[in-house]
């Protein structure tokens, strides 16, 4: 579909076929692509920044910043579209971001300037804040269109500007008093000066008048009173000189009086001004001394409490650590002892099992060797008996003591009875002896001949019959 943005908006398209994002005013939005609009009109952010000068004096700086995206730079517009446009520009997120940057830069700049520099150089301070804030906002693609820093405001409890205004007012009042005194001084000096000039001119006019009248009176008596006239002229001239001298003296006295009065007024005002300055300095030093004393007392008390709390906390932590280490060490030792006991028990059991296994193996080897020896023995006997398995069986029974055991059992069975004793003879002892009594087969044959009488006796005493494989008993057997 075809999308078009308004004059103050831009389209942001991303998705299929677009590596990052595409910012445009109008475009076709294809399937698999997503789009959104964002407004680029600037927004006013009004707030008060609380900062502190280099003298550690806090103040409030009301400010209004008009901030918006930089539309004339594609890279900045891309940053704004990625970082800011997903949020509402009137939201707390964007306002906190802009306000945080402005407050941070303002505080850093204010901390490097004194209060007097900030107050007198408001224009330079505003320009510095503007440049530093703009430098930080560049990374978000934002531009400051306008910045208005209002008059600095005192923080409650720190009325610096109020005191500064009072100081200016007092300086203006004192200057007005000085101007009034100076005007009064000029008036008095001017009056005296005019009075002196009046007296001087009057004396001069009087002298000239007297000279003229004397000359007119002497015209008629010029010859008569020539000497008197000359004397009179001389006297008048002397009087004029005296009058002039008096006028000069009066003028000088007026000047001296003026200077004396000016000096007196200046001295009084200087003394009063110096006294006020010294009194102010004394009060300021007393306030600073009291402040430092209170700071020192509170700091000392806080430091002692802090050190005490730290030591107590460290001691408690040390005790707990040592207890934990002791408990851990005890558990480790118990675990090690249990492990050693388990290993020793395991080793002992293993040795016992290994010994039993070895004994069993040796026993098995002995049984195997015995079986092999018995097999060899039986094979030899079988070969000696010419392969007669019956003879071999009888021999084994005889050599194994079976018949003796049977005789013993029978004897035990008939003990205390009066058995019928039959004596058998086969008459072959002499013949066997004569034919070679040393032969093993003949001995076996002799033992075998004793079996029938034995079986017969057992049958008569107990009623038991011998096994069929050993033979049968008949009634006509001879004794």
UniProtKB/TrEMBL annotation:
- Protein topology in the membrane: Lipid-anchor
Q: Does the keyword Coiled coil apply?
A: yes
One of its Pfam families is: Band_7
CDD domains documented for this protein: SPFH_flotillin
UniProt keyword annotations, A-Z: Cell membrane, Coiled coil, Membrane
* The Band domain, residue ranges: 7-183
Q: Which SUPFAM superfamilies match?
A: Band 7/SPFH domain
The name of this protein is: Flotillin-like
Annotated source species = Anisodus tanguticus
